[in-house]
Write a structure and sequence with these properties.
With about 700 residues, this protein is mostly helical. The chain folds into four domains: about 1-90; about 95-305, no CATH class; about 320-425 and about 430-440 and about 455-460, no CATH class; about 475-685, no CATH class. The protein has helices at about 10-40, 50-75, 100-120, 130-140, 145-170, 190-205, 210-225, 230-240, 255-265, 300-305, 310-315, 330-340, 350-365, 380-395, 400-405, 410-420, 425-430, 455-465, 470-485, 495-520, 530-540, 550-560, 570-595, 620-625, 645-660, 670-685; strands at about 1-5, 85-90, 240-245, 245-250, 440, 450. The model is unreliable at about 175-180, about 525-535, about 545-565 and about 610-615 (pLDDT under 50).
């Protein structure tokens, strides 16, 4: 900042002379106009008609000068700016011109910060009028970067973390009650100031350069490192939200500041966070949504939800070489991210919600690259590595007790949103063990895919609840995969079809097994009937598309369960029935795809009709009557499978699945192959510890 010095008395004289000069001009102009009117307008006085505008400009200039002079006087009287003999000074903020409006806004920030500091130092309860007027001024100007810069520059990082608590002390304790418990106090003053400082830090940092932003972040970290009271206030400040499209969202900060702060806080170990006994206060009684955590990371993680570019740089630091990441080169990065996710207690709903929000924003391209990102490029692999680390970290710890009490609807929805963007990765992740790393950068896929551990994927699927986008994404991916395999069919390389069928069957089995596990686990819960009723219905509707007529059957099963005695056996029984439907639906869709002549070039011989069976599928009356028209063309679509009267179609497809085999080297019917692979997916879930 720059100090501008002036002599108060001399400058007031200048202001007075300017005003006198303006008044003299006005009087002279009036006399000239009267004289000209008395002489019937004989003179040409057009030139003085603009004097009024010039006088107005002169008065405005005089007022601007006087404003700065009075501002300097106020700053000087409050001991905010230095003096030099008879000279007083005002402040011109960094990277701004000596503009009157800027100077006054900055000075007002300094004056209000000075008043706040003095009130805290006095430690006496101010009058309600005094306090409300100050808070209103701070709130009304909290989004003005110039004003905010003045306040934060004056109080400094330590003041930002101390003043909220100290101002609460001013209001004292209720008589006769314990002095260390927030339940016996009114902490609104602290909440108000933390919220104000959150807005100010955001608005000021956006005006700062990266160097100043990083320096302030380092100072904040230094101030909070060994003081849990300050850490609580720092987290609460970063929990500040704003309304955007009717939803509360975190604030937009300078990226360099957030990245620096996150890296510093990440390095803190919890045992370092300690406060002297005489400063200890019971923050634990405050609602967690306010953000008063002693852990170092919740606040900065919350802030990252609105700053995805900063989040990506923190989680996956940019590499100047721009070399695309692989499963091996990304291993340490992903492990570190998982560790960050597991730094805080999953009982805090906002913790899981914030991490899934970051994964959601990065996966949809909000971290600075958007839809222009090149598949398999460095940025694609970097984004996916960050998502993989977050989702593995979250998924590994989503146990049933978390499902029941600590997952918000937003979190469930975002889990489904993220997973639905990576259907190929979901397929690969359902392979048992996943020993080849947690990032799949294979040119055979449309983009880099995250790979999830068996446990993480099971828990994420079970925890997401109803999410039609997930089921549709998986189904559309499977439809494309099998259509491509059949369209590009090569009799000498039939294994490509078997690989696709294997992936589809195993993945659907894994998904069904995950939902069955969830239903069984919560079957012991006190409200299991409601939980399983909701879970089973949402699973049916969204996780694996099933044939429409079976929906009524499942509804009956769920209804029966709802009114039966509550026990785990009933829950398991329902889960088995639901799994059967998923298995049959998977088999029906695969069989239909193979029979569909519009995309399938296979002849009956290539479909390897089993020896001893009928030579042509159409000779089977059930198949002929319900799958083909009079011209012997397939006359059924995937959509028709959802019809309420589709039982005959399902039966016909079941007949067909028993009669065809496209597996190279053996005569196993399609039905057996699909069922075995589906059950393999279910078994993988059962083996998870």
């Amino acid at each position: 900042m720059t100090y501008v010095y002036l002599d108060y008395a001399q400058m007031k004289t200048v202001v007075a002379e300017l005003n006198n000069y303006a008044e003299a001009i006005e009087q002279s102009g009036a006399e000239i106009r009267r004289a000209n009117e008395n002489n019937n307008g004989a003179g040409d006085i057009d030139g003085i008609m603009s004097w009024g505008e010039l006088v107005a400009e002169l008065r405005d200039t005089s007022a601007e000068i006087d404003n700065r002079v009075e501002t300097a006087k106020s700053l000087n009287e409050n001991g905010i700016t230095p003096t030099d003999g008879n000279l007083i000074s005002y402040v011109v903020p960094e990277k701004t011109d000596d503009d009157a409006d800027v100077v006054v806004r900055h000075a007002n920030g300094l004056l209000d910060a000075n008043e706040l500091t003095k009130l805290a130092e006095k430690n006496e309860k101010p009058s309600e009028e005094t306090w409300n007027e100050l808070i209103n001024r701070l709130q009304n100007n909290q989004n003005d970067g110039v004003y905010a810069d003045a306040v934060l520059s004056y109080i400094g990082p330590e003041g930002m973390l101390d003043l909220p608590y100290r101002t609460m002390d001013m209001f004292g304790f209720k008589p006769g009650l314990a002095t260390g418990d927030f339940r016996h106090r009114n902490p609104q003053a602290m909440h108000d100031l933390n919220n104000i400082f959150g807005h100010m830090l955001a608005s000021a940092s956006r005006n700062w350069g990266d160097e100043k932003s990083s320096a302030f972040a380092n100072q904040l970290a230094d101030a909070a490192q060994y003081n849990s009271r300050r850490m609580c206030n720092l987290n609460a400040t970063l929990f500040t939200t704003d309304q955007k499209d009717g939803e509360a969202t975190a604030l937009d900060y300078n990226d360099a500041m957030l990245i620096t702060l996150a890296r510093r806080l990440e390095a803190f170990e919890d045992p370092e966070i300690d406060t002297p006994a005489h400063e200890t206060r019971d923050f634990s009684t405050l609602p967690p949504e306010l953000g008063y955590f002693k852990d170092p990371l919740p606040g900065v993680v919350r802030a990252m939800t609105a700053n995805p570019s900063a989040a990506l740089e923190w989680l996956a630091p940019s590499d100047p070489s721009k070399t695309p990441l692989t499963a091996t080169s990304s291993s340490d990065m992903i492990s570190r991210i998982e560790g960050l996710v597991n730094r805080c207690d999953f009982r805090y709903e906002n913790w899981t919600e914030d991490w899934t929000s970051i994964a959601d924003r990065i996966s949809r391209g909000d971290a600075g690259h958007g839809p222009t990102i090149v598949p398999h490029s460095y940025e694609d692999t970097r984004n996916t590595a960050a998502v993989s680390g977050i989702m593995n970290g979250v998924g590994e710890h989503l146990e049933p007790w978390v499902f029941k009490d600590h997952l918000s609807d937003k979190t469930r929805s975002r889990i489904g949103d993220v997973l639905s963007r990576y259907p190929a990765g979901i397929d690969k992740s359902t392979e048992e063990g996943n020993g080849d790393g947690k990032l799949l950068n294979d040119l055979g896929y449309s983009s880099t895919q995250p790979i999830l551990t068996d446990k993480a994927l099971r828990n994420l699927i079970a925890g997401m609840g109803e999410h039609h986008g997930f089921g549709n994404s998986i189904q559309n991916h499977h439809d494309r995969e099998i259509e491509t395999a059949l369209t590009n069919y090569d009799p000498d390389r039939r294994h490509k079809i078997t690989v696709v069928i294997n992936d589809i069957s195993r993945t659907n089995g894994f998904i069904a097994g995950s939902d069955a596990w969830h239903n069984t686990e919560i079957g012991e819960a006190e409200d299991a009937k409601l939980q399983v009723d909701k879970a089973a219905t949402s699973w049916l509707a969204s996780h694996i598309p099933v044939i429409g007529g079976e929906a009524a059957t499942v509804t009956e099963w769920v209804h029966d369960f709802f009114f039966k005695p509550n026990n785990k056996d009933e829950s398991e029984n329902l889960s088995y029935k639901l799994t059967d439907i998923a298995r049959d639906s998977t088999k029906s869709r695969i069989t239909l795809a193979i029979l569909d002549s519009r995309s399938n070039p296979l002849t009956p011989e290539e479909m390897r009709l089993k020896e001893g069976d009928i030579e042509d599928l159409r000779a089977d009356a059930v198949i002929r009557d319900h799958l083909y028209d009079e011209n012997e063309n397939l006359d059924i679509s995937p959509e028709a499978l959802r019809a309420e009267d589709a039982a005959d179609v399902r039966m016909a497809l079941d007949h067909a699945s028993k009669k065809i085999s496209i597996m190279p080297g053996f005569e196993e019917p399609l039905e057996s192959y699909v069922v075995d692979r589906f059950d393999e997916g279910c078994e993988i879930v059962k083996k998870i510890k």
